[in-house]
Amino acid sequence: MAATIDERSKVAIQSAGLGFREAERRYFEHERLTVEERYVQLLSHQLRALRERGAVSRRKDCRIACYRLVGDHLRRLVLDAAVHGAEGTA
Predict the structure, then answer these.
(1) Does some domain include residue 2?
(2) Phi then psi dihedrals of residue 16, to 5 deg
């Protein structure tokens, strides 16, 4: 189900001098970014848990964190899983 902008928001948009299409584009862009931010938070949480358990190591460069799997057995496991997943989509 697609989200829609309610009547009160439409009035606010018109009083702000924005065209409806532009305001609608901004609204959906905001919603998309909100969802992407949530995925980043979830991924960050999972990477932190893996680091605490010793499965990955982390190197920080300013605000960017680079993660690396620790051990060849984990690398092979992840690679095998990725190949298996790709075979299912082909």
Answers:
(1) no
(2) -85, -5
Q: Whose CA is closest to 50, among 76, 71, 69?
A: 69
Residue 21 identity (one-letter amino acid): R
Q: Is residue 39 part of a domain?
A: yes
Structure tokens at 85: 């997943």
| Phi, psi of 59, rounded to the nearest 5 degrees | -125, 130
Q: Which domain holds residue 28?
A: 7-89
Q: What is the pLDDT of residues 4-31, one digit of tens each?
A: 556 666 555 555 555 667 666 776 776 7
pTM for this predicted structure: 0.51
| Rg of the Cα atoms in the chain | 21
